[in-house]
């Protein structure tokens, strides 16, 4: 992201959430101007779910940083009881406007602060590009909080672009992850059970789909 855009959005390492509200408050149901808004389920997630359909009956799911809401709607179509959150109130209102009768619970929440009532509550947690949208100094905290959402025997899917270079505040957003994120999740009580990668990336060196499961 160029410096002019950073200044326009008010990106501040010590106010890491503020720029999301600026971004979503300036768009509409089209998602124009939101760089990660596919206005459809993320294609890597969609490809996986199409090969693993009907896995949600009787199970709960949480979408981290739901943005415009399309991934949450896809999980709902698979039978999950879905909660989806974003730190931006404007994003949540857009989700509710786009999908008024979806049955998805769209709520505003702060990943950095965490949500104690969601501790080990969800059978399936989906995280796509949220960690890399926050400055590197919050990585350990947000990985802990995401891990805490995963129920016993529950699964976490992470889709992220990775780089070999050091994560520094000056180089983002996005602040692409290093391969070490996988070990970080395993250090939080999860075990990696699936991993795939592709070189078809926009910014990084690889894009990963990793699935973790809480150890019992």
UniProtKB/TrEMBL annotation:
Q: PANTHER family attached here?
A: TRANS-ACONITATE 2-METHYLTRANSFERASE-RELATED (PTHR43861)
GO molecular-function annotation terms? transferase activity
Which Pfam families does this entry report, sorted A to Z? Answer: Methyltransf_25
The protein's matches in InterPro entries, at most eight in alphabetical order, are given as: Methyltransf_25 (IPR041698), SAM-dependent_MTases_sf (IPR029063)
Out of the domains of life, which is the source?
A: Bacteria
Name-wise, this protein is: Methyltransferase domain-containing protein
* SUPFAM superfamilies assigned: S-adenosyl-L-methionine-dependent methyltransferases
Q: Where is the Methyltransferase domain?
A: 62-154
| UniProt keyword terms in alphabetical order | Transferase
